[in-house]
Design goal:
The complex is a heterodimer of chains A (130) and B (115). Chain A has 2 domains: 35 residues, no CATH class; 89 residues. Helix content of chain A is 42%, strand content 30%. In chain A, strands 2-3-6-5 form a 4-stranded antiparallel sheet, with helices on one face. Chain A has a two-stranded antiparallel ribbon with strand order 1-7. Chain B contains 3 helices and 5 strands. Chain B has a 4-stranded antiparallel sheet with strand order 1-2-5-4, with helices on one face. The longest helix of chain B is centred in the first third of the chain and has 18 residues. The chains are: A alpha+beta (130), B alpha+beta (115).
Chain lengths: 130, 115
């Protein structure tokens, strides 16, 4: 984190903005290039995503939460399982740890409505043909 | 709240609550033994998390002791960020809840601290 901030040292606000814009342009370009490449579905990854969705449905049974899965979104190589609720309580941390290992990352953040969202993100749902 | 020594502060709260619960519930010494590990794991988690506040609470009805971390959000890289998993592997349960538009609370619970 500090190394990231060091990059901005001595720069004016306009220069920082310019740098951010160029980074965003570069990321956008790479994503577009990737999206245009022919890719094949990775069935193992999709099975893992569906498994996580199923286990979360069991783990959170009885709680007032919404569980949703997305495949090929926001990009064709990605998928996610998310849970929304005012409170998300995990009763079996050992099972949670096992399913978490299938995802690449887990994020939890507040929503504008009175809820939090927990998202399990999966990369590599599709693989480009080299 | 800021704690210089999280474990000592937790012990103080447990001692105080044990006195208040006397006659209704008694302290579970087996659970007390894991407190040091849980507090260390919380401190380790704080190294990867931008924590806004740290707190602890007692549910006198269920006998649960909770260590609570308040932060903007939590992002865990499942293959590298071991700190979060280390902590949940010791806690009995954990939960996420919203505090306001910019903060969430993560509660790591030690159930049946008093029985």
């Amino acid at each position: 984190m500090n190394e990231d901030l060091d990059r901005f040292e001595g720069m004016t606000e306009d220069e920082i903005e310019e740098l951010n814009d160029s980074l965003l342009d570069e990321i956008g370009k790479r994503i577009t290039e990737y999206e245009l490449r022919t890719a094949i579905v990775n069935p193992a990854k999709i099975k893992q995503l569906e498994f996580v969705h199923e286990i979360l449905s069991i783990l959170l049974e009885g709680q007032d939460v919404k569980i949703a899965k997305k495949v090929f979104k926001p990009f064709k190589s990605m998928g996610s399982v998310s849970v929304e609720g005012a409170e998300i309580k995990i009763r079996y941390p050992d099972i949670f740890m096992k399913i978490a290992s299938f995802a690449d990352n887990i994020e939890v953040y507040p929503l504008v409505k009175e809820a939090v969202r927990m998202t399990f993100t999966f990369h590599g749902v599709t693989k480009p043909i080299e | 709240m800021e704690y210089e020594n999280y474990y000592e502060a937790a012990l103080d709260l447990i001692k105080e609550s044990t006195e208040e619960l006397e006659g209704r519930m008694s302290l579970n010494k087996e659970k007390l033994e894991i407190l040091d590990d849980v507090c260390t794991a919380v401190e380790n988690l704080l190294q990867i998390l931008e924590c806004k506040n740290l707190d602890m609470s007692v549910n006198e009805t269920t006998g649960t002791f909770a260590l609570e971390v308040v932060c903007d959000e939590i992002i865990v890289q499942t293959r590298t960020d071991r700190e979060f998993f280390e902590l949940i592997s010791i806690a009995d349960t954990f939960k996420f809840s919203k505090i306001d538009d910019d903060s969430i609370r993560i509660s790591f619970n030690i159930d049946n601290m008093w029985e």
